[in-house]
Each structure stands twice: as C-alpha cells, then as structure tokens.
Amino acid sequence: MGAILEVQNVSLQFGGVKALNDVSYHIKEGEIFSLIGPNGAGKTSMLNCISGLYRPSNGSIRFKGQEILNMKPYKRTTLGIARAFQNIALFAHMSVLDNLKLGRHTLMKSGLLKGGLYWGSAQKEEVEHRRAVEEVINFLQLQDYRHTPVGTLSYGLQKRVEVGRALALEPELILLDEPMAGMNSSEKEDMSRFILDMHELKKMTVVLIEHDLGVVMDLSDSIAVLDFGKQIGFGTPAEIQNNPEVIKAYIGEEAI
C-alpha cells in the first residue's frame, strides 16, 4: 500500500530550543507505526504537528497526498485524523456515553437552525452519531460503564475512554500518545489487543507512542526513533533493534 502520511524535513523550534530537527519519514496505509525515543525526544511534539496543535517552523506534512500544514485541527479531523492524548482530557462528571458523543462534535452537520427547521435531517444525523458511539462502546468492551461518570472509573478504563473518543470520529489515521502509560500488565494486554483490532478489523492506520519496547516491537510494522528532536532511525522492528545509533542512544546493549 502507498503512504497515508508523509513527513518531510519537519523542524519545530521554541525560542532557541529545537524540539524537532529536520525529521522525515512516511507511514504506509493500514500499518501500525511507532514513534519512540527517550523522554524529551520530541515524540509528542511530532503528534502535535500532525494533529495541528503546533505548526512546524519548516517542512511538509501530507495526508493522502494533501498538504495539511495550513489546516486547522478540526479540518484535519474531518479529513480522517483523530488523536488520543497522553494526559486524559475527559469530562470527569459526564458519563462514558456522553464523553464519546462529544468526541463526534466536529462531524455534526446539523446546526440549531437546521435542527429546528428540518427535524427529520437532524434526527437521522443523531441516530448515525449514536450508532457510531455504540459501536465504539462495544469495540472497547465498555458496555457495563455506559452511564458511569468517567471520573469514578479506574485509570485504565479512563485511558480506554480517551482512546474511544478518538475512535468515535471513525478516523483513517489514529494518533495514540502513550495509551498504556500507568497501566498494569493486564490492562496493557487489553489495550494491545484493541490496537491490533483497530489495525486488523477496522483497517485503521495507527501511530503509537509507547515506552514499553516489548509492546512496540510486537505490534509495530515500522518504527521511527527520535533523540533530542533528531531522527536517528527509521525502519522495521528488526532494523531498529540492530541500528547502532539507536542502540547507543536509546535501547542499550543489554536490551538486544
């Protein structure tokens, strides 16, 4: 398959600090792609550039052949890009169902006026949004928590809802920023299975930031490695594991 996302010579600078320095890689349609590196390497900054929260100092980011750097974040969402955040950004007092429904707000076409004048159209749209949300609830096995306030759930379940809010947008490309952070081994196994199902059943392209190298090597089709904003490796898991620069900067001799 061809590339769904192409990152070319992307740099991002905050004052005198270069968060990203001439980073280039491509992500094939339908693959699981991981972005790894030490803390402060620029991984989240890279996702922020893709999702539109940051604008690179220079470079190009193309989604399905279309340049997206000048697009607002919500426009990128409507194109098929969704993002789950490392730090949970849910409405704690609201239910799982309502949080997931809010996740689809950028896809809603029927405004208040249209809803008032053309109730049939708005009603059909509401049915479609509810269908998509219920599909996410079933996919992530959240049926028992549908009406539970998110703030009362365990941390692992809250992370699952955070991912679910991105899934509710039915994206072609989903960006997952440390979806397993703070999870126990059982919760990590569940999230790994959900990521594989996004890839295999939903045919989504997944971009994953994750510090557990065992998970990364097991799940990924390809990997890019950052270190202090500079890309030091890009390739298959086997190629990354045998890359001398990556071993020296990140993996370590003992891990090979």
Automatic annotation (TrEMBL):
It comes from the Bacteria. GO terms for molecular function: ATP binding. PROSITE patterns: ABC_TRANSPORTER_2. Keywords: ATP-binding, Nucleotide-binding, Transport. Residues 5-253 form the ABC transporter domain. InterPro entries: AAA+_ATPase, ABC_AA/LPS_Transport, ABC_transporter-like_ATP-bd, BCA_ABC_TP_C, P-loop_NTPase. SUPFAM superfamilies: P-loop containing nucleoside triphosphate hydrolases (SSF52540). This is ABC transporter ATP-binding protein.
